[in-house]
Amino acid sequence: xxxxxxxxxxxxxxxxxxxxxxxxxxxxxxxxxxxxxxxxxxxxxxxxxxxxxxxxxxxxxxxxxxxxxxxxxxxxxxxxxxxxxxxxxxxxxxxxxxxxxxxxxxxxxxxxxxxxxxxxxxxxxxxxxxxxxxxxxxxxxxxxxxxxxxxxxxxxxxxxxxxxxx
Length: 166
Known about the structure:
Distance between the termini: 29 Å
Number of helices: 8
Number of strands: 2
Strand content: 5-15%
């Protein structure tokens, strides 16, 4: 779930070649919106100056998924929050573990609340919700400057992933 891990995936795969990997993906514009709003109070310019995560992490993640150097299952964030039981059953099957329904109702269990993730939304819910699935699209539709910045970053990511394409 930590985007920065994308930069070290080849190392992690070499370190743990027999591990099974659960790779959570999300629409790039949704990642960016969440990042900028969670850590930069919605200031896309400041967020990009600090770390242009789409340009750095999306191509690295795409290479890892394309090359699949280790056993992996890709889980789409959007599908996970819309159909959590189906997706978690698929993950548990991939891991060759019995399904545990309690993983969907994560807020019903004691767990560590500190971490590197989203400081705003993670504590608001006790199970997956669809609130943020299209939130980013509405934000970008309402702000042409933000939309232009995301288009530029995604375009640069595609050029990185598919050299020679425009």
